[in-house]
Amino acid sequence: MNPAPQQRPGTRLSATVLGARDPRALGAFYARLLGWRVIEDQPGWVMVRPEGGGAGLSFQHEPELVPPTWPAQPGQQQVHAHLDIAVADLDHGVAWAVAVGAREADYQPQQNVRVMVDPEGHLFDVFVGPV
């Protein structure tokens, strides 16, 4: 067993990875939604990042992906994580998300946040915040 290091090694968050039946299509969706660019496009793996750098999103081929049920229900696939996407104007942000391929979830628990569903069934929230 190796002893624990005395100092934290250099680290950074590279990306959040989402499973996808079609990683290329989901990568294109998020690139368009966020105004980012695809920086890697391989069979089974796509990465998108903002122009200025920083953490991005990656999409891994998962042919057996089961989208979560929203709202959560016993015995159904649960939401494990979701993305929060800040917009300057809620109505405009929701309309843009729909225009590029998302849909609004049927259940909306908050008036100032919209729960959206991406083309693979992952949830993300759109809310007004600093952009």
UniProtKB/TrEMBL annotation:
Domain Glyoxalase-like: 16-127
InterPro entries reported for this sequence: Glyas_Bleomycin-R_OHBP_Dase, Glyoxalase_6
Pfam families: Glyoxalase_6
Record-linked Gene3D superfamilies: 2,3-Dihydroxybiphenyl 1,2-Dioxygenase, domain 1 (3.10.180.10)
Signal peptide start and end residues: none
Domain of life: Bacteria
PANTHER family, per the entry: CONSERVED PROTEIN (PTHR35908:SF1), HYPOTHETICAL FUSION PROTEIN (PTHR35908)
Descriptive protein name: Glyoxalase-like domain-containing protein
Organism this protein belongs to: Kineosphaera limosa NBRC 100340
